[in-house]
Amino acid sequence: MARRKLVAGNWKMNGDRAALAELDGIAAAAAVHTDVDVAVAVPATLIAGAAERVPALAIGAQDVHPADRGAYTGCLSAPMLIEAGARFAIVGHSERRADQCESDILVAAKAEALHRAGLQAIVCVGETLEQRDAGEAERVVTAQVEGSLPEDVSADWCAIAYEPIWAIGTGRTPTIDDVAAMHRAIRAKLRDLLGERADGFRLLYGGSVSPDNAAALLDAEDVDGALVGGASLTAAKFVPIIAAASR
Hints:
Elements: E1 5-10, H1 22-32, E2 36-41, H2 47-53, E3 58-61, H3 78-84, E4 88-91, H4 94-99, H5 104-117, E5 120-125, H6 129-133, H7 137-148, E6 158-162, H8 176-194, E7 203-206, H9 214-218, E8 225-228, H10 235-245
Parallel strand pairs: 1-2, 1-8, 2-3, 3-4, 4-5, 5-6, 6-7, 7-8
Helix pairs in contact: 1-10, 5-7, 7-8
């Protein structure tokens, strides 16, 4: 089935108020390439400013707490993100799984919190280089898919981003065949879990996506978009990736 492409940026712990000027060019490109959904997850301190500056662009967060309120110092709930102007959040990014020891169960709870509040979710999965070299990549990633999705998950509000951990920020990417194979494996796992509903889910590729490799990656089988890190920090690098999705 035809699925609308989604190109999402993840600024991670980068950017300040001055950097929001980059969103002007990104929003302009989104207005031209209307066949592509464009989104940018900025640091929490910039969500409100970004949403006010480019109201037509989907601005999101990089994490969320599974509870709506409570004694969780330093955390942000989905209702708080909505008030700031966010439309979606990334959950389960490998950097949070590793650095904050997040489990599949916690990631699923965060995704459910987003859905409960009416926000979109991008759920991330991916293997380490050691797991890939050991021939365990598909087993690890499909197990993450099964464990990180809430029971009532739907393509209406959730996308899945495959990001091989060893490719994030390194300039290295899997071969196109490897990416396509992993996305097929994810799709097959979704069909096992959800039946025909699996065909509606958008599967994004992430991991050193750049203007140079975007077209080839986005043309790969079962790749429905990209989750872009460093190249999303400037319009000059992010806009060509949006254009590649619109080809």
